[in-house]
Design brief:
The complex is a heterodimer. By secondary structure, chain A is mainly alpha-helical. Chain A is 83% helix and 0% strand. In chain A, α3 packs antiparallel against α7 and α4 packs antiparallel against α5. The radius of gyration of chain A is 19 Å and the shape is elongated. Chain B is an alpha/beta fold. In chain B, the strands form two sheets. A six-stranded mixed β-sheet of chain B has the order 6-7-8-3-9-10, with helices on both faces. Chain B has a four-stranded antiparallel β-sheet with strand order 2-1-4-5. Chain B starts with 10 loop residues before the first helix and ends in a 5-residue tail after the last helix. The chains are: A mainly alpha, B alpha/beta. Chains A and B meet through α3 of A and α9 and α11 of B.
């Protein structure tokens, strides 16, 4: 017999808000690479201004967490969920910042001719967004096993980053005039690699909710 | 030792390393044919505050009263199993129950000062145990009232009736009364449930200070209080036949953040009452 129906309802609503925030950032991350690929400066500017909404959502969720802690004195798994939400929203917000970073790079590049067709960078973005989506599913479903598995897929993103890095080094070595453009693409790839690391952190928080223990899952090589 | 952050400190490791002060081993308690407690095995650490929590009627107070044999006063009460204080079986024949209750003092839910002066309330116990020298009595009264964080509030009105004090002061007077006979263990049965929030916090602060020297066991309905003050916590519940059982016992920080038993989790998260 559930006693604390009001509190548990508020907790569920807060978790739904985390999903909403995650969905916002999934969109901006994919859009940021699309804007880069298509040299869509309007989209890049839109991504930057939309980030304010992501930040706002984070603060709203944090405020609700603090309110719940103060007024409801959560214990055990309820407490772990709220603490995890505080951490997860920070990670999602940082992923949003990486998308903004990529949008700024697009604006910096402007209408410069592309160095090469973008293949691996969009693949990094797709992999990272897919990991983010599934990590938030594992959060809702309290699925520690899925979370651990998703975290290990960070290796795929790291591998793609390696490829991008090596390829761009070759460009720069062969033609110093490409250094500026190549460096900007390296920053883009680095942002995506960091975004995937943030998803790993989210997975660790899911494991924490389920087991009560903080585990380091597959530390990034970078 | 700073005991102000029971939830988050790592003092529970220290508590676990402390000696066992009280112990029950497979204890069953009956009131006539009714079994109130079943198979209770519990080690109470000497340098910790232990909280006993659980729903109403699950036997928390019955368990508490095992330790000073107050259940003996209930007709038909019968104990099976072992209850030890410092390794001595306290239900053995020949145990001096008066001496036991001097060592294991008790504070009750409703403050119950005697209808006498503040001074006489505190001096009552030492007088009964043979102390008659006025100077010695005055010293012990002052020491006990200081220890109970009440001296400054009553030092100029020791001859005033204990019943004229506020609820929180009365409870601290009762604690001073217990301290005056130099116990080793203090049992507290919901000591704050009749007090206002400020008086409650004062008692909790006092408990933390007292726990430096005494073993304290507190029964409380207030889970947040249990989490605030205790290092070790025991969760009890009532089985279908209404016998109380011990479900989980461990460091407070673990019990309230990551309980091992689902029944504990369900109770403390309010998923069952």
């Amino acid at each position: 017999m559930e006693i604390r129906t009001t509190f548990h309802k508020k907790l569920r609503e807060m978790q739904d808000e985390v999903l909403v925030m995650g969905s916002m950032v999934e969109k901006t991350l994919i859009s940021s690479v699309k804007a880069l690929k298509e040299r869509d400066l309007d989209l890049a500017h839109q991504i930057i201004s939309d980030d304010l909404k992501v930040n706002q959502k984070r603060f709203e969720i944090e405020e609700r967490c603090v309110e719940l802690i103060a007024t409801q004195q959560p214990m055990a798994s309820d407490l772990r969920i709220i603490i995890a939400i505080l951490n997860i929203t920070t990670e999602i917000e940082r992923i949003g910042d990486y998308a903004v970073g990529i949008a700024r790079i697009t604006i910096m590049i402007g209408d410069e001719p592309p160095l090469k067709p973008l293949i691996d960078i969009p693949r990094m973005a797709e992999q990272t967004v897919d990991m983010l989506r599934r990590s938030l599913d594992s959060f809702i479903n309290r699925d520690a096993e899925s979370a651990r598995k998703i975290a290990t897929e960070d290796d795929l993103v790291d591998h793609l980053y390696d490829q991008v890095f090596r390829e761009l080094l070759v460009f720069m070595a062969e033609d110093p005039k490409t250094i500026t453009r190549a460096t900007r693409l390296m920053w883009t790839a680095h942002n995506l690699e960091r975004a995937a690391d943030r998803v790993t952190n989210i997975c660790e928080r899911v494991v924490f909710i389920v087991t009560g223990k903080m585990e380091e899952i597959g530390a990034s090589k970078y | 030792m700073n005991r102000n952050h029971a939830l988050l400190s790592n003092k529970t490791l220290t508590a676990q390393a402390c000696a066992t002060k009280l112990r029950t081993e497979k204890v069953n308690l009956y009131y006539g044919s009714f079994q109130a407690l079943r198979n209770i095995t519990l080690d109470i650490h000497a340098c910790a505050i232990t909280a006993i929590i659980g729903p109403s009627g699950c036997g928390k107070s019955s368990l508490l009263r095992l330790f000073n044999r107050m259940n003996d006063l209930i007709p038909g009460a019968r104990v099976e199993g072992n209850v030890e204080l410092d390794g001595i079986l306290i239900y053995s024949p020949g145990i001096d129950v008066v001496e036991l209750r001097k060592k294991v003092g008790m504070v009750f839910q409703k403050p119950n000062p005697f209808p006498m002066s503040v001074f006489e309330n505190v001096a009552f116990g030492p007088r009964r145990h043979g102390m008659s020298n006025r100077a010695e009595l005055e010293e012990i009264v002052e020491k006990s009232l200081r220890h109970a964080a009440l001296w400054d509030e009553v030092k100029d009105k020791l001859e005033q009736s204990g019943l004229a004090l506020s609820g929180g002061q009365q409870q601290r007077l009762c604690i001073a009364r217990v301290l005056a006979v130099e116990p080793e263990v203090i049992l507290m049965d919901e000591p704050c449930s009749a007090l206002d929030p400020l008086a409650t916090l004062k008692i909790e602060d006092l408990m933390r200070n007292l726990a430096q020297e005494y073993t304290i066991i507190i029964v409380t309905h207030n889970m947040q209080q249990a989490a605030r003050v205790s290092e070790m916590a025991a969760f009890m519940m009532m089985e279908e036949d209404r016998a109380g059982v011990l479900v989980e016992y461990g460091p407070t920080s673990e019990l309230f953040t990551n309980p091992k038993d689902k029944r504990t989790e369900d109770y403390i998260t309010g998923r069952f009452g």
